[in-house]
Design a protein that fits this description.
alpha+beta, Rossmann fold, binds adenosine monophosphate
């Protein structure tokens, strides 16, 4: 179902998922006079605290889903593992953005990489692996080092193993849970970057500047904007985002994770994965742009004109993991720093508790 007309203020946006992304979406919607109704199974969901309404129920709960659909004007989500049946049920009752195709494509690494290469984008070499024997054959073809990843439910490095020269294949297969998988050739990248883009119901596209993303233990630590990359590479990243969103008839904000490699001295972009939602590497937009990725997503799904993605400052976004957020008093006192805390009840090592955006005057 498509959105018939732009949603006026006081309309209700339904969001599946109640984590920090849902919370920041609801905050952005509130600024535009739009309300959010959050649907999530965890009673302590950070987004419940600030949304106009919430439903605490399991995603397969059809009765709760029907009541939720009746209470909202459009449905979106803040995580990509929304069960297909949940999305299909809601999509029959209300406009769903991004649509079911975007969801299905990004839930399965094999479908995702197949889609990306079909539309002419470069990915790591890849092949499906269904069992231990298949793994041996595929490693012989793709070579080592390589990365074995589960097709579904992997995030922040979970469900993946690097196959080095001496890694035993049967152990690697067990380590990922002996599940349908994909084997990817190892990309010797120089940097990891991403592109955050939005597409409206009318096909309009807005793309933010490219951040360089630094990870530790597979978790994003910092996004640095602008990334130190050639102007042509920025343009190529924008083109990649436009091609993906157009091919999926996408509505909303998308995060595309890219590797930057160097070939004969030239920068080259290789697409790693797509996230059909607002993305951690876009959190810098909250303080360095007039319209953040969260407001942009709300605008897109509500049928509003997209806002300007222009960046007014240089910025470094740093995630506050676990106990790092306990330093909130010092961080809040730093000049030119935007602090965002997610209101999570419990701190655990590595858990994303908040982030800061440190601004400096724009240099380029
Ligand atoms: P992913 O879960 O696909 O986002 O991968 C998590 C991290 O593993 C990435 O951010 C990279 O640092 C690394 N990685 C994933 N795939 C590859 C690859 N094909 N080659 C090299 N490094 C990779």
């Amino acid at each position: 179902m498509r959105l018939e007309r732009p949603l006026p203020p006081n309309s209700v946006i339904g969001i599946l998922g109640g984590g920090q992304l849902g919370r920041m979406l609801a905050l952005a919607a509130a600024r535009l006079g739009l309300k959010c109704h959050i649907f999530a199974p965890e009673p302590e969901s950070p987004a419940f605290q600030i949304a106009a309404a919430h439903t605490c129920a399991a995603y397969p709960d059809e009765k709760a889903l029907a009541a939720f659909a009746a209470a909202v004007d459009v449905v979106t989500y803040e995580f990509e593992n929304v069960p297909a049946e949940t999305a299909a049920l809601l999509g029959r009752l209300k406009p769903l953005a991004p649509g079911a195709e975007a969801l299905a494509t990004s839930q399965d690494r094999l479908a995702e990489k197949t889609f990306l290469s079909k539309i002419g984008l470069t990915t790591a070499p890849f092949a499906a692996v269904d069992d231990k024997e298949g793994l041996e054959k595929t490693v012989a073809r793709i070579g080592r080092p390589a990365i074995l990843k589960t097709r579904r439910f992997g995030y922040d490095g979970k469900g993946q193993v690097t196959l080095k020269a001496d890694t035993a294949l049967d152990k690697a297969w067990t380590a990922i849970g002996a599940k349908p998988a994909i084997l990817e050739g190892f990309v010797a990248f120089e940097k990891e970057v991403s592109v955050i883009a939005a597409r409206g119901w009318d096909g309009a596209i807005a793309v933010y500047d490219v951040p360089e993303n630094r990870h530790a233990d597979h978790i994003l630590r910092e996004s640095i904007v602008p990334a130190a990359i050639a102007a042509e590479t920025q343009a190529a990243a924008r083109d990649i985002a436009a091609r993906i969103t157009t091919a999926l008839d996408y509505v909303g904000v998308i995060g595309v994770e890219l590797f930057l490699a160097r070939e004969n001295g030239q920068e080259r972009l290789i697409v790693n994965e797509i996230a059909p939602r607002v993305h951690n590497s876009g959190h810098w937009t909250m303080d360095a742009c007039l319209v953040s990725q969260f407001e942009q997503h709300i605008r897109a799904v509500a049928g509003w004109p997209l806002g300007s993605p222009d960046r007014h400052s240089d910025v470094v976004m740093t995630n506050l993991l676990g106990g790092e957020a306990d330093n909130w008093r010092n961080l809040a006192g730093e000049p030119h720093t935007g602090i965002h805390l997610y209101g999570k009840a419990e701190s655990r090592p590595g858990r994303k508790m908040g982030h800061v955006n440190r601004l400096t005057p724009r240099q380029d």
